[in-house]
Amino acid sequence: MKIIVAGGDGFCGWPTALYLSQKGHDVSIIDSMVRRKIDSELHSNSLTPIASLEERVAKWKELTGKEIRIYEGDLVHYDFLKEVLKREMPDAFVHFAEQRSAPYSMIDREHAVYTQHNNVTGTLNVLFAIKELVPDCHLIKLGTLGEYGTPNIQIEEGYIEIEHKGRKDVLPFPKQPGSFYHLSKVHDSHNIMFACRIWGIRATDLNQGIVYGLDTEETKLDPVLTNRLDYDGVFGTALNRFIIQSTIGHDLTVYGKGGQTRGFLHIKDTVRCIEIAAENPADKGEFRVFNQFTEEHSVGDLAAKVKKVADEEGFPTNIANLENPRVELEDHYFHAENTKLKDLGLEPHLLDEEVIREILRTVVQHKDRVIKENILPQVTWK
């Protein structure tokens, strides 16, 4: 297939582009490089040194003989997006190209507005461009489990059957997003669902959990292909932050009680899920929702897992509970369905001590790059 990976320079997008290319698909990347610019804005960095996108793609071609085309630009610029689609005429459009940080969206009004404009307008442009130029193209959109929040009932995959006053219907699962970022994803889901219904577009919404891990088989082929590793209080995941903290002699900083429970998956499963969605496209007019995660963990459990491995690796550490900068339940029920991708062939990689150990040892190699003042939270929801 001809596949566009929008956001193909990012943490999920880059290994996805390589994986799909290695599998024989004809891949092109759209990216505005804004994630690299945000590093400069926040005076932050990827813990792993990352090459430019041009260097990455050139090295990939040198190693494999496979070409990945680059289009540098922003999805909010509709004329640019249309030109790319005219040239590529893709069979699938993989959409990672959004501002993905909840804390970033909560910094202030400007960052909230930027997040919503970038994410919602960019996705609307993709929908209109598909309708106008490639109506049979399958939109594979990265959503988030965070759209659902933490309801006190089982989270279904996108839809729920409701009985009300003697009548039944299957309706979109209620959304309770926890940040302006997560709210932008809810808007995306509604807009895509609407476009599928009125225009006959085919789309898969992947409500993804938190991604951990660093490498795929493709990114390990050469240091130039290395994936980014975020650790700061704005873009770093709790697991990454804990691992980095353990190697520099910092307490593992758990927000609040640590009972916050979320869905997780390995980066190797992220790329496989995209492949599964591409090879099993939604029907025309179908808005299909998959919950893309493989396991559930609480923040406190993650800290305990990291502490055990860090202690064994010679980095004894303590767990400290910080006042939670977010507005969220810290003790709650959480269970989500995740059978659809498994039914289509996903064989999960699970978070074990060896995965944590592998990341930790990579971190040790680059811990001189840690900007220590970026590790603690600096953004509050209140």
Structure description:
The chain is of the alpha/beta class and 382 residues long. The chain contains 12 helices and 14 strands. The strands form 4 sheets. A 7-stranded parallel beta sheet has the order 3-2-1-4-5-8-12, sandwiched between helices. The protein has a 3-stranded mixed beta sheet with strand order 9-11-13. The chain has a two-stranded antiparallel ribbon with strand order 6-7. Helix 4 (78-88) packs parallel to helix 6, helix 6 (109-133) runs parallel beside helix 7 and helix 8 (238-247) crosses helix 12 (353-366). The chain is globular. The mean pLDDT is 98.
Kindly list the characteristics that best describe this protein.
alpha/beta, 38% helix, Epimerase_deHydtase, NAD(P)-bd_dom_sf, 382 residues, 14 strands, seven-stranded parallel beta sheet, globular, Rossmann fold, three-stranded mixed beta sheet, NAD-dependent epimerase/dehydratase family protein
What is the CATH fold-level name?
Rossmann fold
Could you tell me the strand content as a percent range?
Answer: 15-25%
CATH H level, superfamily name: NAD(P)-binding Rossmann-like Domain
- The oligomeric state is single chain
Q: What's the N-to-C terminus distance?
A: 46 Å
Gyration radius, rounded: 20 Å
Strand segment tally: 14
Number of domains: 1
Q: Helix/strand/pairing class, anyone?
A: alpha/beta
Number of helices: 12
Known CATH architecture: 3-Layer(aba) Sandwich
Family: Belongs to the NAD(P)-dependent epimerase/dehydratase family.
Organism: Gracilibacillus oryzae
Domain NAD-dependent epimerase/dehydratase: 3-291
Pfam families: Epimerase (PF01370)
